[in-house]
Design a protein that fits this description.
This protein is mainly beta. The chain contains no helices and 8 strands. The chain is globular.
Length: about 90
């Protein structure tokens, strides 16, 4: 797999932003909105997730089989994800 860039509209329900893969993944998540988003597992909430502040980018290493979800405290949060396998 090469680079894969995806745009997501994040709201108040956890949304899958990185699917499980059989290979390790490097993932950059850019919060392109003016509000904080939160990332974590399937049960991520705005109080349990790792926050990504407005206009910030974070890098993650995702092991095979893991997934990443995002949520926010409002609707229509623009989130950009780019991922590539090792």
């Amino acid at each position: 797999m090469g680079f894969l860039a995806t745009n997501y509209n994040i709201g108040t329900v956890p949304s899958l932003i990185v699917s499980a893969d059989s290979n390790p993944l490097n993932v950059h998540i850019h919060n392109n909105s003016e509000h904080t988003i939160y990332v974590g597992g399937t049960n991520v909430t705005t109080t349990t997730g790792l926050n990504i502040l407005k206009q910030e980018t974070e890098e993650f290493y995702i092991v095979p089989g893991d997934q990443l979800y995002a949520i926010s405290n409002g609707d229509d949060r623009d989130v950009r994800v780019i991922k590539w396998s090792r």
